[in-house]
Amino acid sequence: MALETELALANRLADAARAAIVPLFRTGIGSERKADRSPVTEADRAAEEAMRRLIKAEFPRDAIFGEEFGAENGDSGRTWVLDPIDGTTAFMAGRPIFGMLIALVQEGFPLLGVIDQPVLKERWIGATGQPTTFNGSVVRTRLCPSLAEAAIATTGPHYFDDHDGEHFMSLAAKTDHKRMVMGGDCYNYAMLAMGQIDIVCEANLKLHDFAALIPVVEGAGGTMCDWNGDPLHAGSDGHVLALGDPARLDDVIEALACAH
Q1: What is the C-alpha to C-alpha distance for residues 236 and 242, in angstroms, rounded to an integer?
Q2: At what angle do helices 162-173 and 249-256 cross, to 10 degrees?
Q3: In whole angstroms, what is the distance from residue 14 CA to residue 100 CA?
């Protein structure tokens, strides 16, 4: 499946979202609280609106599911999944480690994914059957000889409930936790795809949080799954693992299960 037209559109979507986000970065714009108490800004909404307009013009039969404006039905069997700013808290703090996420999903599984950092002008693109690229150059994850040498990342401890937090800490204790990265949202997965981080472990993610990450990580040689090792899809429960070296998967699953 070549996906040339879809990838070309995905790049234009990312360009349009950049144009909406960058002028508002570090301007002190206000935010509101959504029903789940997470923040949303004018930049989130403007970026998603810009992307929706382009999708409807080019692929009017495709469905759209975005974090800010929900679902619009289609009849093609495909859905564009959009998260205009993954890491709104980082955006509001003036930290350029948030990202824009774009995925094309068919039958619950992503065909392509884009992670874009608009301020730094960094873009990772992954697609089924193709190597992941960073600003046009192929990137690869790195080998990880043992769990004890692994650098692990997560967005923050407050995203785990007590039960999940115990399991995460059981895993983290078996890694090189002196190098643990906190914060970063989707940027952690981009760094994993480039061989800078070995494991990302998170819970309570929605489809718009993880769909775009899968083609990027797997196209770079890594693997993504849930905490049981099962493939991620639209019905997954939000427990997400990314590994740069798939050889460590059994070690990670075992360590996660060892919480007391």
Answers
A1: 14
A2: 130
A3: 7
CA 59 to chain centre: 23
What predicted TM-score, i.e. pTM, was given to this entire model? 0.96
Q: How far is CA 12 from CA 111, 205, 238, in A?
A: 17, 26, 28
Residue partners of 99: CB distance under 8 A and separation at least 6: 85, 86, 87, 115, 116, 117, 185, 186, 187, 190
- The number of helices, as runs of H, and strands, as runs of E, in the chain is 8, 15
How far is the C-alpha of 206 from the C-alpha of 208, rounded, in Å? 5
Residues 193/217, Cβ–Cβ less than 8 Å = yes
User: What does the alpha-carbon distance between residue 60 and residue 128 come to, in Å, rounded to a whole number?
Assistant: 22
Report the alpha-carbon distance of residue 79 to residue 70 in Å, rounded. 12
User: What domains lie within the chain, and their CATH numbers?
Assistant: 4-132 (3.30.540.10), 147-256 (3.40.190.80)
Question: How long, in residues, is the chain?
Answer: 260
Spell out, as residue ranges, where the chain has pLDDT lower than 70.
1, 259-260
How much is the pLDDT for 1? 54
State how far the alpha carbon of 116 is from the alpha carbons of 13, 73, 120, 147, 236, in Å: 10, 25, 9, 29, 24
In 3D, which of 5, 240, 14, 196 has the Cα closest to residue 111?
A: 5
The secondary structure of 147-166 as a DSSP string is: GGG--EEES-GGGS-HHHHH
Please, which residues bridge with residue 142 across strands?
Answer: none
